[in-house]
Write a structure and sequence with these properties.
Helices cover 35% and strands 25% of the residues. It is α+β, with helices and mostly antiparallel strands.
């Protein structure tokens, strides 16, 4: 009798865990679909002024990521940073350049992609306009630390992620008497003279496998329940030990 009770409790517990995991994935799917809708709406909206210092404390991925923004200022091309990238155009680098805005703060702008063979500044010099420029693009939050299994190496000038604070420190941008925004901006596809860098390559996509995961967990819950019923049937048919 005790063995059957333990079997029932264990079977119900396992089934309950699988049901809970399936329900959690359903909830995650609803959240992900809402996120996708919000991001797509932001990335297609009319550009708004880039957030200034008064708004930085409230910036989150949920509220600001992929917001379409516009900013005007002057590029400091001599302080550009190359961040390793892999795109549909192959391997190469993102070119991040600080833009001193006409509103008194600095923003790192990802001007776009250059292939590995064009990493030297001379290869993209034609795409470095003088004077004041206006940039439109997507707001992205800083990517601290580095890439997958690869840490940024500021001392060696090897960058695998767009870590705004680390890049600003390495390039001395944080010592300019202007605050540095805690985000960067991916420039849009407006062509640059000479063809480089190539902007507008931001991938706005999210993995959404939650329905598959939910169905998997629910299937395991069903299998666990069926196994419990089968085990109870088998145990009920087992011959009872003869009484003394």
């Amino acid at each position: 009798m005790l063995a059957r009770l333990v079997l029932v409790l264990a079977g119900l517990a396992v089934t309950g865990v699988f049901l809970g995991l399936g329900t959690w994935q359903v909830e995650r799917r609803v959240w992900k679909l809402d996120l996708i809708d919000r991001v797509e709406a932001r990335s297609r909206a009319e550009p708004a002024p880039a957030p200034g210092p008064e708004d930085w404390a409230g910036l989150t991925a949920a509220s600001a990521e992929y917001r379409r923004v516009r900013l005007t200022g002057r590029f400091a091309y001599d302080r550009a940073t190359l961040v390793q990238a892999v795109t549909g155009r192959g391997a190469g680098f993102w070119v991040l350049v600080p833009l001193a805005t006409d509103r008194g703060f600095t923003v790192l702008v990802n001007r776009g992609f250059v292939p590995t063979e064009s990493r030297e500044r001379a290869a993209r010099a034609a795409g470095e306009p003088d004077g004041e420029v206006t940039v439109t693009g997507l707001l992205r939050l800083t990517e601290p630390g580095g890439g997958f299994l690869r840490r940024n190496d500021p001392a060696g000038d090897r960058w695998y992620s767009r870590d705004v604070a680390a890049i600003a420190a390495a390039r001395g941008i944080d010592r300019i008497p202007a605050e540095v925004a805690p985000y960067f901006v991916d420039a849009d596809a407006a062509p640059n003279s000479g063809g480089l860098p190539v902007g507008g390559l931001t991938v706005v996509a999210f993995h959404n496998n939650h329905l598959v995961y939910a169905l998997t967990w629910y299937a395991l819950a069903l299998m666990s329940a069926a196994a419990l019923v089968y085990a109870l049937k088998v145990s009920s048919r087992a011959p009872k030990a003869p009484s003394a």
